[in-house]
Design brief:
Strand 11, helix 12 and strand 12 form a beta-alpha-beta unit. The protein is an alpha/beta fold and 301 residues long. The chain folds into three domains: 108 residues, NadA-like (Rossmann fold, 3-Layer(aba) Sandwich); 95 residues, Rossmann fold (3-Layer(aba) Sandwich), CATH 3.40.50; 79 residues, NadA-like (Rossmann fold). Helix 3 packs parallel to helix 4, helix 4 packs across helix 14 and helix 11 runs parallel beside helix 12. The radius of gyration is 19 Å and the shape is globular. The protein is 43% helix and 16% strand. The strands form three sheets. Strands 2-1-3-4 form a four-stranded parallel β-sheet, with helices on both faces. Strands 6-5-7-8 form a four-stranded parallel β-sheet, with helices on both faces. A four-stranded parallel β-sheet has the order 10-9-11-12, with helices on both faces. It has 14 helices and twelve strands. It binds 1,3-dihydroxyacetonephosphate and iron/sulfur cluster. Iron/sulfur cluster binds next to loops.
């Protein structure tokens, strides 16, 4: 066995540790993870883990979610600089302004957000449960932060709500254009188009399937089709190829989140050895951000 993997397994036993990884991390990271998933799966899993040390291989909002949902544990984020730019693309001032100008408004916060933004929100959602949760909220007005594209997608699917959009977006998903997809479609006319809802409206409109990373993985597994255009981060290819050796996948242009790719085996080893970088939040920050996250887990059952 590879020396680094051996060392990680040894440290896991020694420290009573467990490794979580998002589908967008490097294949070598997914290989050593105990649990791999989308943001929703990882939040649910984080809450029930019994080990003393949880290593979250992903970006900082994911580390924060783990700490908020399981605060007694030591939570390590192997690269403290791995951050999701979209997590910062909303403001408390704007939330307050929308609340003043709209009666009966619920602030719905995509988990790709800082703990601070969560603490000013009524409920969190992920791309896997946003439709269900928004549909079932009692409020007519919804301020959806920070992702305008997921917010717009929810608005098209839940027309009975008045969805107020924020102008944040994932710079990686938003880069894909309608032309990128059409070009690939021309080369591979039989291929089904699988799109993450963080993509632009024009890309979502070309999709045969729209969903979270786990949703795309399940839809490909259940499909009798053999070719797929995958419009989400290329880390998903590891799981797709593992489960479907007979199927072909095409990516529209280079599709990599440089922050997710910051996590490496060396950084996981260093994190276990030094107990750093740890995710640290105050008791007050945890309590405030816990409520909307807990509500999400409740409402998506
Ligand atoms: P999901 O994990 O919900 O598919 O979200 C994708 C993402 O961008 C995570 O950063
Ligand atoms: Fe953030 Fe986009 Fe990277 Fe996901 S893929 S972590 S939304 S920048």
């Amino acid at each position: 066995m590879n020396k680094k993997i051996e060392r990680i397994n040894e440290l896991k036993r020694e420290k009573n540790g467990v490794i979580l990884a998002h589908y967008y991390t490097e294949p070598e990271v997914q290989e050593v993870a105990d649990y791999i998933g989308d943001s929703y799966f990882l939040s649910e899993k984080a809450r029930e883990l019994k080990e003393d040390v949880i290593v979250m291989c992903g970006v900082s909002f994911m580390g924060e979610c783990v700490k908020i949902l399981n605060p007694e544990k030591t939570v390590l984020l192997p690269d403290a600089e791995a951050d999701c730019p979209m997590a910062h693309m909303a403001s408390i001032e704007k939330i307050q302004e929308v609340k003043v100008n709209n009666e009966d408004v619920a602030v719905v916060c995509y988990v790709n957000s800082t703990a601070k933004l969560k603490s000013y929100s009524d409920v969190c959602v992920t791309s896997a449960n946003a439709l269900k949760i928004v549909k079932n909220l009692p409020n007519k007005n919804i301020f959806f932060i920070p992702d305008q594209h997921l917010g717009r997608y929810v608005a098209t699917q839940v027309p009975e709500k008045n969805i107020i959009l924020n102008d944040g977006c994932c710079p990686i998903h938003a880069k894909v254009t309608k032309e990128d997809i059409l070009k690939l479609k021309e080369l591979h006319p039989e291929a089904k188009v699988m799109v993450h809802p963080e993509c632009q409206k024009e890309v979502v409109e070309l999709a045969d399937y729209i969903g979270s990373t786990s949703g795309i993985i399940k839809a490909v597994a259940n499909s009798s089709d053999k070719e797929f255009i995958i419009s989400t981060e290329d880390g998903i290819l590891y799981e797709l190829r593992l489960n479907n050796p007979d199927k072909k996948f095409y990516m529209p242009k280079e599709f990599q989140c440089k922050d997710m790719k910051k996590i490496s085996l060396d950084k996981i080893i260093k994190a276990f050895e030094t107990n750093e970088p740890q995710v640290r939040l105050t008791k007050d920050e945890i309590e405030k951000a816990y409520k909307p996250l807990e509500k999400m887990l409740e409402l998506s059952k």
